[in-house]
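Structure, all two chains, one model.
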Amino acid sequence: METLQSMEPQAPTENIGNVDWPAYVDHMASLHGLVLDTERRAEVITQMQRIEQLARRFLDFELDPHVEPAPVFRP
Amino acid sequence: MLPQSVRKCAERVRSGGVSALEITEAALARALAADGKINSYTAVTAERARAEARAIDAARIRGEVMPPLAGVPYAVKNLFDVTGLTTLAGAKIRLGDVPASRDATLVRQLNASGAVLTGALNMDAYAYGFTTENTYFGTTCNPRDLARVAGGSSGGSGAAVAAGFVPFALASDTNGSIRVPSSFCGVFGLKPTFGRLSRSGAFPFVPSLDHVGPLARSAEDLAIVYDALQGSDATDPACTNRTLEPTTDVLPLGVGDLRVAVLGDYFEQWADDDARQVVAQAAVVLGATDMVSLPETDRARAAAFVITAAEAGSFYLDDLRKHPQDFEPLSRERLTAGAMVPAAWYVKAQRFRKWFQEASQQLFARYDLLIAPATPCVATPIGAQSMVINGTEMPVRPNIGMLTQPISLIGLPVAVAPLWTENGLPLGVQLIAAPWREDICLRAAWTLEQSGVACAPIAALPAA
């Protein structure tokens, strides 16, 4: 049986891998004024890794400079 | 006396065959008798319902023209403002909030259409979940199998409609929260085009992606309610100024000469045998000729995930700082991480959304209707942490919506019609059309219902 990690796409072109997520989470928690106990900190790190895993799927996707986010999205 | 359908209920009240108050009492009595097993309501507005029903009955006796939803009971996901109730959005942290001083726009519209509000319904905390396993307000059980989840985040809406407490309910859908409970509970649901219906007075979750819409037990009922909900609203900046585009009368057009295709690739890959089977059934009835690919769907799902995390995390940051102990443990750390998403990732996700929207438009130049499963599988057991789809094990909560997320990312209108698997459980198909073509979605749902493959009977509940 495969695991979800098998959905990982090819290596991204942007250098966002090998992130020190514990350090990032500690820094952002300090910036936001959040106090995280050991258990919560560990889970936030896990969640950041999951978000990174998903973000990698579109971060390397090249977009024309004129593709802009819509101020109010109109389908 | 139970309100079997929106149409029949309104017709009987209009003709004087039954009073709105009698229907309301029957609906309240059924919920009172059976909701202990399901936990769909978080508040029952019995006195308000009786007052609204009496007002309808009095108007009929005075000879006034009866509105389209005269005497039809309904309930709303507890993120809609209801005068006098605290708007919970499924969250313990909202319990101390001041009660709403006025109804949400859609509740006011339903009121003006003669509908009778019976209460507020359970949901995943903050609308951040697909199972309605709410640690504080309890799990909503699936009326089709009480050991399974109702889906979420509008699980109370799906369950209350499936259980026959009300013929329709209001809900919201950011990443699949109307479509997932419709699929799991075996009812019809409509997530309209982004911006079609007013969200004013509905508690926000992810403003870029939040939609609102109805669930019901037939395509016709869904259309009748949806038609009553349409209208512009300057207090919701996303709400369209388009003129009303009624759908009920066009249902009998069916799929006619519509060009219909099945979405393959991603939507086939992340569906189990049951999900593929119901799509195949729907494809035959709707005359789907091709299987097509919506390009980069996997990236679209990821973009929806990151936009959701970032906007929801940002929204709840102050509360996370002030009273983290009162947060839903199933989503607190997801929200916390969301508040830490790099802005560059969020903006890239929004830009990708625009690209994906344009890619989808090319598909709608060739097809009018696209079919996909609403969920990867049937309702999962309560408490399940993981599920296996096509040999891949994955966590349940973040992934039940993986087939709905890419579609709502670009705001396409979707109706869900419930089909039935060999094991007797429902599983919905998404009927997806180009923006503003809810009529096509509903015509397709109506066609499936007429053929007999889709139906949403009231669930038989075990005796007390």
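Chain A touches chain B at residues 1-4, 6-7, 9, 24-25, 28-29, 32-36, 40, 43-44, 46-48, 50-51, 54-59, 61, 63, 67-70, 72-75 (CB under 8 Å).
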